[in-house]
Amino acid sequence: MPSVFHKAIPSDRSVNLTIQQNTRHISVAKYAPLSFTRCRHTSRRHQDHAGLSESSDSCPAIRLTPRAARAKARRTMSAQPFLPEDFLLSTEWARTLYFEHAIKQPIFDYHCHLPPDQIASNRQFENLTQIWLAGDHYKWRAMRSNGVNEDFVTGNKTSDYDKFLAWAKTVPNTLRNPLYHWSHLELRRYFGINDIINEQSAPKIWEAANAKLATPALTTHGILTSNRVNVVCTTDDPVDDLAHHIAIKKTGIGTKVYPTFRPDKALVVNTPAVFNSWCDQLAARSNKEVKDLASFLDAIDSRHAFFHSLGGRLSDHGMENIPDTDCTENEAKAIFAAARSGAAATPEQTAKFTWFMMLFFGRLDAQRGWTKQLHLGAIRNNNTRLLKRLGADAGVDSIGDFPQARGLTRYLDRLDSEEKLPKTVLYNLNPADNYIFATAIGNVQDGVTPGKIQFGSGWWFLDQKEAMEWQINALSQLGLLSRFVGMLTDSRSFLSYVRHEYFRRLLCSMLGADIQAGLIPADRQLVGSMVENICYKNAEAYFGLEAGKL
Ligand SMILES: [Zn+2]
Fold it and tell me: Please, what CATH class does the domain formed by 124-218 belong to?
């Protein structure tokens, strides 16, 4: 064994040292940020050793015996425990920002797909499959990719336990996919189960999780309360009667739950069967005849007003892109009439009608002080076999490459020039377009509302570590990260609130690294308050929704 060792000497020069040190030093320094080391063998400070680590046998003055070399190799293989308390938080500043600022913030979930009926009824889930796998197309895709038969993914001939077991067997094969982190975090944070998920641990996990699911802690109200979710905005069709939202208000839950107006079916003049069915439902729900374009718009307006009366302040649209076109009122009237009589609109007519309607929807939102959300760029239903078997949202959608820049910027400019541009959040699905979105928002900021036009958080395939960093970096470089309204779940699952933890850790990690590198000031007041704003306070100020106080 080498006869020399290194002694840690306290120092108040940690910031300076850190700047000089290489990556290896930083990874060690996170456990002793206020110390540097001096080599007793050479009496030299180790940062003078071209950035070598504190480990004695890293000293270039030492020649290792074969046995010491093997011992060193074993140490090199050592690892932190899986998902430690400071996971993703690689600097002392990141840990301070996370534990002193981010974690203390409640959650403002301004866009999700939680089923309102399950909140109204305070649903108690029968078993882990019901709360964890049903409806989760991220997991479905992973299982299919892992060779799991569809019967065990979505089939109705297999038991819930069989489906859970198929998932547990899949989890070890999801290493480096965010599902691996999410799944383990979900079991830990909601169920207190720390096991690594695999076929062997599955029976024990099933039993322990189901026992916990039978307690009030894991009803839908229990989950929203314990996660301090002050606001939930669900996603709702304008023809929905919102009875569940009305019922939720009577339950006394501390979370404020609001509907979001998502009128995607108002645009589908290319599929008259769907369009006309929706128009008929709209007529029935609004008690208005829908016989021409004017009455169609009037009926939509009345539903918008109804959502507003229940506290709704957001709309949402899922579309490939905003078409780069124009459409007169007469053109829109003709397209509407043709579709209403059963004739499918051409792609060009559909684009025109979309442009016309999106301007109408923008004006509606502006008039009532709402925020518009645009989810752009998905190419949907790309598997005819599964679409026939399961319908939409079967987990067969992917990232499209539709032109975004011109249609989007013209759309925002047109509404802005009419002084009818609502607050708007743009979600991008194609990372190649991040800079397009991050610059598009800057064209039409109004100098009144901070961050009026937002580049939304990494969406769908992009709500994972790498892509969330891309979004944060694009927004930082081209806009104001400080005005960002932050994370949302966009999930159908009540177990997805760990995604806020994931986002917050990433955010703090990035800012902590910047501080450590001297790129932003080491100022708790400045950076800590920015973290709190992005995690919660910006959203609370921006959306104009009364929040719960959990
Ligand atoms: Zn969504």
Answer: mainly alpha
